[in-house]
């Protein structure tokens, strides 16, 4: 388990390289995708909650190898 004191999109992107699961609100996922262009080969799972996630955001994550639900 990785816990951050405050949200840092670059740190979350790095953590997704080694963690298989993350829970983010839609704006956090969008910021991670904006600051980091890598493609995740092992397909981390990101649970998106707290607000409705636009289908375009979910598709953008999936194109990068993130299984967002």
Tell me the layout of helices and strands.
Layout: H1 9-16, E1 21-24, H2 26-35, E2 45-48, H3 55-63, E3 67-68
Parallel strand pairs: 1-2, 2-3
What does it look like?
The protein is an alpha/beta fold and 69 residues long. The protein has one domain (9-68). It has three helices and three strands, in the order H-E-H-E-H-E. The protein has a three-stranded parallel sheet. The longest helix is centred in the middle third of the chain and has 10 residues, at 26-35. It is globular, with a radius of gyration of 11 Å. The two termini are 19 Å apart.
Short description:
By secondary structure, this protein is of the alpha/beta class. The protein is built from three helices and three strands; from the N terminus they run H-E-H-E-H-E. The protein has one domain.
